[in-house]
Design goal:
single chain, about 550 residues, alpha/beta, Rossmann fold, nine-stranded mixed sheet, seven-stranded mixed sheet, globular
Amino acid sequence: MNAYEQKPWLARYTPGVPADVQPNFRHALEMFRAARAKDPARTQIFYFEQAVSVAEIDRLSDAMAVVLAARGIQQGDRVAVYLQNVPQFVVTMLATWKIGAVLVSLNPMLRHKEVSVILNDSGAKALVTLESLYLEVAQAVIPESQVRFVLTTSELEFLGDQRPALLKDSRRLTCPGAEDLMTLIAAHDGEIPAPVNLSGEDTALITYTSGTTGPPKGALNLHRNVVYNSFVYRAWMNLTPADVILGVAPLFHITGLIACVTTSMLLPCPLVLYFRFDPATTAELVETCGATFIVASITVFIALMNSEEARRRNFSTLKKVYSGGAPVSPAQVEAYQQQFGAYIHNIYGMTETTSPTHAVPFGAQAPVDPNTGALSVGVPVCGALVHVCDDEGNAMPVGEIGELVSGGPMVAPGYWGKPEETAKAFEARGIHTGDVGFMDAQGWFYIVDRKKDLIIASGYKVWPREVEDVLYTHPAVRECAVVGVADDYRGETVKAFVSLKAGATATGEDIIAFCKDLMAAYKRPHMVEIVDELPKTASGKIMRRELRK
């Protein structure tokens, strides 16, 4: 067996959940319209603790759609959003879909050159951005792009008289050359855009890869991809309208878009947004909003474990806990469960797969591979079919390591404007993930590492992930990353970058000595550098590429 469908496994571990998800919506906008018809007064978003109803989001997005159409945005055009996790992101997404346009999401951490690359690559005709990001970055790069107009907005909208501590330094700014989004929406309040015909084959989103291994590429996430994986989240995580989704994952990222925004529309249930991740604010909102479901990178959970505010808050409602985007070690899962009483379920997917292809079903616990110490990322979710292949694309037997090729209804058809890159990455079976792993005899999948991160030391293969899992068992280690560095004798040698827990002390020599009896000599770090922080993408992935520099 070299490809695994989850149907027998799912029947065994999650009775009552259908093995095949059968979405009954043609496109993503229909999910929101169904929620609007069901209960327009229901809360769609908590922005901090301020409630925004389904009806209000619908009315605002109608007016914005009219604004976009009046400025020449047509079906198939791209609208870029350069925002933090604010309600205006959701409004813009719905408005874009209401006129048949495509949302292009930009990481708010990107700077001038990076923003320019994505705007030019996508050919976006409109940009919606925060006032601060416009003045700091976007204003300078707009003249070089195809952007015809810019709408700016503030993180202080939707708050009423509330001023959260996280936004104590925020203020309204004047943005020459741009128009204020909420002023335009107010001017068109009550207007409805002309209807458009959408299908599942229309592009809903262009989401750019994180660029951890090279220049970002825009994945074409179709409406049917978005609908399908929204249903997967509902089924796999056992979500219901009684849940409250904590919007920790950045909304520009595919996980934030699907796990948070579109899943909250499908259920429907409230989505808690609060500008950007902050441990103290997160802990406060878990308690005050009664958050039940979270998907976040492991760095978020590490930050919460080290937060004084989180220790004081009640986390009893937050039971549906998932982590993806970066490797999770068994030691981290155990530590979080001891502190907060909830098990971190692994999840695995890509921008190109519209979020998950694998997950640990809610209520199950992932096994640990006895040979590598790796924690399983789960089994293929509903409808996913995954192959483990060698370098020539041949299927590998159970237990053998190879590249994962993921297929199914969640897989995007390719990259925007990049036919050669599309042909290289996509084939009939699905997408070549670039991740190396294996499947055990029970159908659990394990990610060993990225193909490009393999270290060859003295002729031996060393996967950084295996070394990092050992390092995480050291009581002083908060975060770590392992890379290969040039070595005249070994070819490459193993180097670890380590940040320490608050109040902990350890030297590089201490950590090297700790590893001595825990792994073979060629695997263990010969160099350890203690750093304050490791470089990460906004989605929490540690950027080994930056460390290798």
